[in-house]
Amino acid sequence: MNYNSISEIAQLGAKVLRLKAAAITDSQSTEIQQLIKTLLDTLASTQGVGIAAPQISESKQVIIIASRPSPRYPNAPLMEPTVMINPAYEALSDTTEKDWEGCLSIPGIRALVPRYKDIHITYSNEQGTLVEAKLEGFVARVFQHEFDHLEGKVYLDRVENNRDIVAESEYFKMVGVSSE
Q1: Active-site annotation holder among 8, 90, 101, 146
Q2: Which terminus of the chain has a smaller tally of CB atoms within 10 A, N or C?
Q3: How far is CA 83 from CA 63, 65, 66, 88, 94, in A?
Q4: If DSSP codes are grouped into helix, strand and coil, which group holds residue 43?
Q5: pTM to 2 decimals?
Q6: Please, which residues have CB within 8 angstroms of residue 179's CB and are 6 or more apart in sequence?
Q7: CATH code of the domain covering residue 38
Q8: pLDDT digit string (tens) for 23-45?
Q9: Counted domains in the chain
Q10: Residues near 153 by beta carbon (within 8 Å), at least 6 away in sequence
């Protein structure tokens, strides 16, 4: 498989965004290592805080969480990009919280989405080592958002009321951030 280092982001309506992604059986394969590099490079070229392989038209269970402050997410905590292969999670309580989300595959729109506040995650890293962690708050939200991409879902599927969907320009006005 031949990847460019930066891939085009699949947009809402692309069939790949509605497929259940295939599990990775060999995380050390050249194909998967190149996919990871392309995901990292593609995410770095955006103001996103996470990306899933289906977003670059690869229906495989790989996500990257890379929370960092940006004009899109000025209050995001800073963390190193973390590659997660075959991720899974469970809620640590029934407590959910609505907060604003956007998506590289759905530009120009934000919506209030309910998500679990505290989750326990498992995944394999780039070396194939199983990792377990607890995530909370914003990073837990990003994980659940990216995990949904592996299930063929987008954040708009979780919106409880259509009035919770706004143009990104209006979102920036509401939160008092310049959209430039």
Answers
A1: 146
A2: C
A3: 6, 7, 9, 13, 27
A4: helix
A5: 0.95
A6: 71, 168, 169, 172
A7: 3.90.45.10
A8: 999 999 999 999 999 999 999 99
A9: 1
A10: none
